[in-house]
Amino acid sequence: MIRMSDVYFIRNSSSKFDEIGRDALVLLQKIEGDTSHIFDKEVPIKVHFGEKGNETYIPAKCYDEIINYLKGKGVSPFYIESNVLYRGSRTTTESHILTAKNHGFTQIPIIIADGEIGTEFDEIEINKEYIKKCKIGKGYGKYKQFIVMSHFKGHIEAGFGGALKQLAMGFAARGGKLEQHSGISPIVNAKKCSSCGLCEEKCDFDAIFRTDTAVIDESKCVGCAGCIAVCPHGAIRNTWSGSNFMQNLSEYAYGAAKDKDIIYITFVHNITKDCDCMGVSMEPITENIGILAGKDPVALDTACLDLVQKSSGEKLFENGRASLKHAQKIGLGTMDYKIIEIK
């Protein structure tokens, strides 16, 4: 018999974010009741704060109902995230938290799990086909229970961003993000490098030395990508040219979820071509659909993708299905699901 995972669904095409937030709480309570779920005293809520300049990220008010519900049960919730790999408004903890607060995420404390420049991580052993150990932000290791809240939308490399991407990129430290994209050391643009020595000074692995420019010794580099964050000239970068990205993403999602108790909630609203990491204004490419939730991130993402394609009448984000197939193959979850629609 094929194992199927339950995916709870509330159809809601509204743009009223307080209404959307109430529906998210209904789904949380449904999962809580159906699975006899008991919350810990502290519960991290994994979200995406949106890059500076982005306007279609899921706004802070969508989380109010769940936050208030948890507090009413004596639970202390807080937001948790990790710093990004590229240079933007969420590259360092200081600028990341400032961006979050500017976007209205002020209801509860914010923890950036991988340290000031994204170099603090635990290695989680998974021994899968492409990844043996995942570099997961150290702060995530303190907690067993999470609520992972995602925004379903497009992504230039992953096809789409949903629960798997929130796990894979969202839980990974900078070096883990680098490994998913390329699996190699950063490179130095000699034309931009002033040989100031800051990257050499900050490297904890003696992997950088200077001639006329900074030079990265690949035999010593562990791929933490901290040098990308500290370079004042933007001279050090990832190549974005690696292979097996879809599979790497699935395997990192596996590592992030390993031994964790997670409830997943996804907003299928403001569906844009590209990710909330894009610091630009974007227009939605199809109608709002609703909120979905479950305990299986593979089933959840598959259901979201199917609903978006059905609604649009197009094979939107279809290349992202490769990550779902690999995630199923390695045992993260199943693509076979049963929709339980709540009226």
Report on this model:
The chain is globular. The chain folds into two domains: 5-180 and 242-341, 3-Layer(aba) Sandwich (Rossmann fold); 185-237, 2-Layer Sandwich (Alpha-Beta Plaits). The protein is an alpha/beta fold and 343 residues long. Helix content is 30%, strand content 21%. The longest helix is centred in the first third of the chain and has 18 residues, at 17-34. An eight-stranded mixed sheet has the order 4-3-2-7-14-15-1-16, sandwiched between helices.
Query: What structural class should be given to the helix and strand makeup?
Result: alpha/beta
Radius of gyration: 20 Å
Content of β-strand: 15-25%
CATH superfamily of the largest domain: LarA, N-terminal domain
Helix content: 25-40%
Total count of domains: 2
| Annotation field: number of helices | 10
CATH class of the largest domain: Alpha Beta
Strand order of the largest sheet: 4-3-2-7-14-15-1-16
Number of strands: 16
Q: What gross morphology would you assign?
A: globular
- Overall pLDDT: 93
Low-confidence stretches: none
**Under the CATH scheme, which architecture of the largest domain would be assigned?**
3-Layer(aba) Sandwich
Query: What is the H-and-E element order?
Result: EHEHEHEEEEEEHHEHEEHEHEEHHE
Reported by name, the CATH topology of the largest domain is: Rossmann fold
Question: Major β-sheet, in short?
Answer: 8 strands, mixed
N- to C-terminal separation?
29 Å
